[in-house]
Amino acid sequence: MFDDLSLVFNYTLFRATLRASTPILYATLTCILTQQADILNVGVEGIMLCGAFTAVAVSYFSGSWLLALLAAVAVGTVIAAVMALAHLRYKADIFVVGMAVNMLALALTRFLLQKVLGTSGSFYDRAIVPLPRIHLALLDGNEVLRSLFNDYSLFEPLGILLVFFLSWLLYRTVWGLRLRSVGLNPLAAETAGIPVFRRKFEVMLYSGVVGGMAGAYLSLGYSRLFAENMTNGRGFMGVAAMFFGGGDPIRSWIGCLIFGFTDSIGSRLQSLGLPPQFILMIPYVATISILALAMGRKMAAQRRARSALK
Amino acid sequence: MKGTSRVLIALCLIASCFFALPVMAADKPVKVALVLAGFLGDKSFNDSAYQGLERAMTDFDVELKVMESKNPADWESNLVAMAAAGYDLVLACSTQIAEIVGSHAADFPDVKFGVIDGAIKAPNVKSIVFAQNEGSFLAGAAAALFTTRSEIEGVNDKKIIGWVGGMDIPVLHDFLVGYEQGAKFIDPEMRVLVSFAGTFNDPLKGKELTLAQYDQGADIVMNVASNTGNGILEAAHEAGKFAIGVDLDQDGIYPGHILTSMLKRVDVASYELVKDVVDGTFKGDTVVEMGIASGGVSLTDMSVMKEALGDRFPQELLDKIGELTEQVRSGAIKVDAYEGFRRN
Q1: Residue B305 CB: number of other CB atoms within 10 A?
Q2: B189 and B109: one domain?
Q3: How many structural domains comprise chain B?
Q4: Which residues of A touch B209 (CB under 8 A)?
Q5: What is the pTM of this model?
């Protein structure tokens, strides 16, 4: 029994958790930016999917991961710009726009997969150049150290840096303060002379940049292939983690880590003979519990705020 | 002048139609529809079925239509649409679609249905099932013989091997039963880690599950997961570990990381079904079983791995597999079958 447990809980779990949480983390960062300006970016799934496809296609044809990354970012930004235009300029409901982008992305990548890469389902080839990995030769000797710290894909540590960068940007700079004020009370912000429309548009574009990166990581860092619907709900899990953290980068990151952790534990428990139907349910149960937790906390905060007013 | 030549040409055209028509009617191509529970490009089950049909197209006058979808709601409408559109032969290529054939075959008495990986009894249905348990027995034995060879880089001395499947369906359990029996036949202490991805179309999930099994001490994992399996093979390559391919010869996808592949000759099955229809020998109400003895399942000759490992390649492993193949063929070893998988 203890032998079995050591197969589930051991040092390799650390790495597995980080790996599984990173795609969700990028999705979360994508919606945190817009959420601070009071825009719920549900189109993150579609932006990621288009980014992932672009990255694989460009990497395959050009042989350069950098070009692939830039192309994915460009595509992400364009989609976000269209969403911003529809939502801000023409006052379309952001939820509807987001869902439209998700559905379009699913069908469009499927179509382009057939037309551009000549296959369906999934595409992989040795000519696809992945994002570089950080290899430290001096850790090679020790099995444990190597598992914990070596051979990270460039975007895994970068994602963590991005969490702290965003946190600094939102809470320690004038730009962040103004952005949050736009989200909290646009009328007041407008009165104070902050260009609300421009700020919201700007932040949507940044969100497209991060969304494109998220897609590129999914197809060139996390794996080295493109598969139809490869995001498979990871974008929505990112939205859930964002709600869990209430739009705060560090707290939302913790939400992502919980997702990654439950997913990794699930993968390990299954191979020890637990029923797969139960294990495959874990990510969804985790999503609901995390959202319920976040909701509970929010309600408690509201109650506290009410009693303070009395 | 101009007018008369125009009339002449028109007359010639009409006349040629009358001459050509009977000829065309005689060689009317056989219309074949392939209905898949997934996509081509899996370099496995679906591609194998397609390869057989490609061969049939070069050998006979065949017109082919492929219907791909991973969405179970589409399978029934795809199948019915093809049967209603007057195809001569509708191939249902997967256990899941086989069941749909069972409920619709009677509605289209003039259409012939070929079922692969399921046993359906009806006057216009011919089914082919594979003894994947026998092939997996050999794969399990090969994995068990390989996993303790710690002199090969990437192999540890633990007696743990892995297996990752797509959806949790009976035919996959048939694979699994054979795999476990083969592993235990070599060493009763052998431990088999088993995971199902719950889908045939999520390579990322396949990769995650495989990496988890490597973390748990497995160094060789068998792929039985169509498109999801692309992630399994990628995990082997990335982690510097090993995998066993399935259905088609996948040894060359990541040379040196795929020990062998369990060949399931879906291509032979699809080719034979078309040939039956072309030759007029199609017989309904029959279930054909293809096992080791009939060449329906086997392992590859491991030549890719042999070349990658050079003189570190364990030749006695290959010899032992040859020996086991003979014993299964002759019936000296009886491989268990999964009871939930219908064979007749």
Answers
A1: 23
A2: no
A3: 2
A4: 267, 270-271
A5: 0.86
- List CB contacts of B21: < 8 A, sequence separation 6 or more: none
Structural domain boundaries, residue B107: 29-130+267-290
Domain co-membership, B286 together with B241: no
Same domain? For B180 and B256 the reply is yes
Q: Convert the pLDDT of each residue in B216-269 to its tens digit.
A: 999 999 999 988 999 999 999 999 999 999 999 999 999 999 999 999 999 999
* Rounded Cα distance, A205 and A175, in Å: 15
Same domain, B121 and B214: no
Neighbours of B184 (CB within 10 A): 16
- B152-168 residue pLDDT tens: 988 998 999 999 999 99
CA A196 to chain centre: 26
Q: Report, in angstroms and rounded to the nearest whole number, the Rg of chain A calculated over CA atoms.
A: 20
Nearest to B216 among A228, A230, A268 (CB): A268
Q: Measured between CB atoms, does A62 come within 8 Å of chain B?
A: no
- B77 and B159 within one domain: no
Bridge partners (DSSP) of residue B115 are: B92, B127
DSSP B21-38: HHHHHHTPPEEEEEEESS
**Tokens (6 digits) for A215:** 């897609």
Question: Checking phi first, is residue B144 left (phi over 0); if not, alpha (psi -120 to 50) or beta?
Answer: alpha
What ipTM score was computed for the predicted complex, to two decimals?
A: 0.87
Interface of A with B in 121-180 (CB under 8 A): 121-124, 147
* CATH number for the domain formed by residue range(s) A2-132+152-309: 1.10.3470
Q: Which two tokens stand for residue B223?
A: 């792929």
CA distance B11 to B131: 60
The tokens describing B144, both together, are 């068990």
Shortest Cα distance from A224 to chain B (angstroms)? 8
One domain, residues B240 and B305:
yes
Per-residue model confidence (pLDDT) at position B12: 54
Of B70, B168, B230, the CB nearest to A225: B230
B chain contacts of residue A20, beta-carbon cutoff 8 Å: 208
- Euclidean distance between CA atoms A49 and A51, whole angstroms: 5
Residue B335 covered by a domain: no
| Exposed e or buried b per residue across A105-142, where buried means at least 16 C-beta atoms within 10 angstroms of its C-beta | bbeebbeebeeebebbbbbbeeebbbbeeeeeeebeee
Q: Which two tokens stand for residue A195?
A: 């260009």
pLDDT in tens, B13-56: 555 555 444 444 456 899 999 999 988 878 889 999 999 999 99
Instruction: Tell me how far apart the alpha carbons of residues B274 and A195 are, in angstroms, rounded to a whole number.
Output: 69
Q: Which of B114, B151, B125, B185 is nearest to B311 (CA)?
A: B151
Which of A121, A229, A276 is opposite residue B38, by nearest beta carbon? A121
Beta carbons of A124 and B198 less than 8 Å apart: no
C-beta atoms of B230 and A122 within 8 A: yes
A64 three-state secondary structure: coil
> Tokens 């029996």 label which residue?
B181
DSSP letter string, A91-122? ---HHHHHHHHHHHHHHHHHHHHHHHS--SSE
Q: Do B227 and A218 touch (CB under 8 A)?
A: no
- Phi, psi at A92, each rounded to 5°: -75, 150
Residues in chain B closer than 8 A to A19 (CB atoms): 208, 211
Size of interface A-B (CB pairs under 8 A): 100
Beta strand B160-165 with B30-36: parallel, antiparallel or unpaired? unpaired
Instruction: Assign residue B107 the CATH number of its domain.
Output: 3.40.50.2300
